[in-house]
Structures are given as structure tokens and as C-alpha cells.
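Bug #77: duplicate submission created two jobs. Keeping one. Sequence:
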Amino acid sequence: MTGVLLFFSVFSLFMISLEIMRVSRMKRADYLTLITLVFILFFGVAPILWYWAVENRVPHYWGVYGDFAEESFLIILVCLVTAFFFAMRLGWSIGTYFCVRRQPQPLADETFCIKNITVPAWVLFFLSFVSYYLYTKAYGGFIGIFHYTTAIRGGWIDVENSWSFLQRFGGLSMFSSYLFYCGLMYQAPRFRKPVHLWAGFAVSFLFSIYVLLTWEGRLGLATYILTFFLTRMINNPKDTRMWKTAGLFTTFGILLYYSRSAIALAKDALLGSTAAEQSHLAQFDIFDFYLKEFSFPLVSIYTSVKETYHGFFSTRLFLDYPTAVLYLIPKSWMPPIPDKISTINTHFIDPGFVGEIPTDMISLGVYNLGVFGAPVLAVLFGIFARVLQHQMTKIYPSSLRAIMTVVFGLWIAKSVIYNDPVNMLMAVFYIAAGGGITWVYMKLRPAARRSYL
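Kept job's structure:
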């Protein structure tokens, strides 16, 4: 066990040193930096905490789900983590060749774009509000849905709802808040920020918090709030000093820590109860919490290897990606569709588990193509991340480019550990839908035909 701890300690230092040298050479951080930080946290630091707990016989949440000290698994884990890291960086390098730099196109007046971007922002907010009104009616309305949020997230809800497909349309309010925030960030000598910008941002931000509370996603709630701070830093380079960056990520850690309690407190306040949350806080253990949050990929990797090579599970050959689109279609319109990979993964780990244990990118690769799937998926992921970063440079106006760079950056970084294709698609759906509506509106404006995206 000492050898495993030593390996992950040295490899973590190697990964962070390699990235620091790359960032110093380029004089800027990018999506690869975010991906590397997340990878180090979940596949470097988390294994150190995990195997320290195993060696010292410290019980924790995931410890009962397998023999993680088995020598054959340790060898496979080390090989998979190492191969994925280098394959992902190889993919990033290959992706550079797909990023052809073109001559910049002439752009319309940025003030004009900012003034007109508020119209689709309001449209998206009202679409979100109406969609969520229809969606929550079957559960007792905007407040009544909190009685069912845990069941909905776990997938064991038994309430018939013909409007269930509108759930993700609630996320349009988040894109709406991004658009209003663009206007608030814009600085120009003769540009006054009208009251409707502040009002629009306030109502869309608050409604987005409400939607995220009904989704019960702690990470989603924390990253949504963090998005605005990081966007401010990108839009104002003078604020990107190291101590502020460290402060932001410390704040994110605190938000993640307390968002669990915040969600429960909000539900209790709306439903008129407090006893459950007080009991929860009394039993809360920070070490167990962080080990639970950051080491679930180890459980998924262990399970994927065991079921693929010692069980009766056939490799899926990456069919999860094309079939993910079927989950956007209302269930009442479709025949039964295949279970998503996270559902299968959860069943393998614990058939009685309440909720869902997501697949990370390594375990997804193993489920799809055995041990060769992880490096193959890593190369493709690296290419995709590099091309996506390049596409961000084409977004206009600049304040929208800043916030979209952050939104997609956090999404691509989270996909390292939450890589069920269905969940990834759902997480980006509101961005694609909101961006599409905004793009169509701006293209229809005569003076903006050369100005947007």
C-alpha cells in the first residue's frame, strides 16, 4: 500500500509541475489547465486519501463496495490513470492542427449588440418560467415539487407527468442570466446600464437558483455561482492575480461543502420543517464528505473492470453517445430506450442504491472498449477540448465570449468525472438551446448580421 501512496503522490506532483511549466511558457491558462486540475484532484489526491484510509483502516462511505486493495486492480488502476493522462495531452496537441487561424472578420458596433442582446434574454427567462410552471404542476406547483426532488433525481418517481420533458427548459433562465450579466459587465463611456438590465439579472439569477435547488445538484449550484466570479476575472485581466484565483477556488470548495446543507435548508424552509437538517448537520464529517465526493470514480473504475472482465457485461462500443439524443425526446413518444450507462453502473455497484453513481471518463472507456477504451476516449476528448477552446474565440461581443468561455470550460472540466453521455448532453442542453435562440434573433437584426457568433 505504501507503494501505491508513493506513486500517486509522485505522479500528482509530476502532473502539476508539467502543467505549471506549460502555463508559464504560454503565459496563460486554458481548458487543459482546468482539465488537469480536476484530473489531479480526482485521480491523484483522491487515491492518496483513499488508500491512506485503507492502510489505516479508517471507514468511509465507499469502502464497502469492493476489495480496492486487490493487487491486480491496483496495477490496472495505475496503468489506466497514467495512460489516460498522457493520451489526453496527446489529443490536445493533435487538436491544435484542427484550429486554423483565419483573418478576423469586420464586426458591428459592440454597444449595438449589447443593447439588443437583452431582448432574447427576457424571452429565454419567460420561456424558462412558463416551461417550469407546466413541468411542476403535476408535483404540486413551484413549492410542492420539493416533496419529490430526491425521487426525481434518483429516477424512482411514480407521479405521471406528461410535461416531464420540460424539466431541462428551466435551465434557460441560467443562459438568460448570462446574457444580462454581459450587459452589466460592458463598459463604455456613453453606455448607461438601464434598470431593466439589473432587474433582468436579479430575477433570472434567483429563478436559476430555484431551478438548481429543485435539481438537487450540489456541483451545479456551486459552479453556477462560481461562473460569474471567473467571468469577471477573465473580462478584467487585472483581477487575475494568483491570490485571487486561489481565493476563488477556496470559495468554490466552501460552496461545495455547504451547498449540501443549503439545499436541505431551502427545502425545509419552503416545506415548513427544520428538524431533519439540524440532525444532518450534527452528524456531518468533513473527511468522509470529501472522500465521498472525490473518490466515487475509483468505485466506478473498479466496477467497470470487474464487470467487463469477470462478469457478463459486453462492451458497448461507444453507442452511448448516439443514443443519448433519444433522451431529449418525450418518453411518451418513444418505445423503451436503453438504460444509460450511469444507471447500469449504479446497478452493478449496488442494486439498492438510492440515486445514481455517474461514470467518469476512464470507467466509461472501460465499459465501451475494455482497458483500451480509456486512452482512446482520452485522445478524442483532448481533441474536442482543444477545438472547443478555439471556437470560443469566435463569439462576439467580448463580454459574452468571456462568460461562454467559463461556462464551457467548467462543463468540459466536469466531464472528466461526470461523463455519462446523457448527463453531459442534458447539462449543455440549455446552453445550446439558449445560444441557438439568441443567435437566430441577432442574425435577424439588420445591423447585426456581421456581429454575432
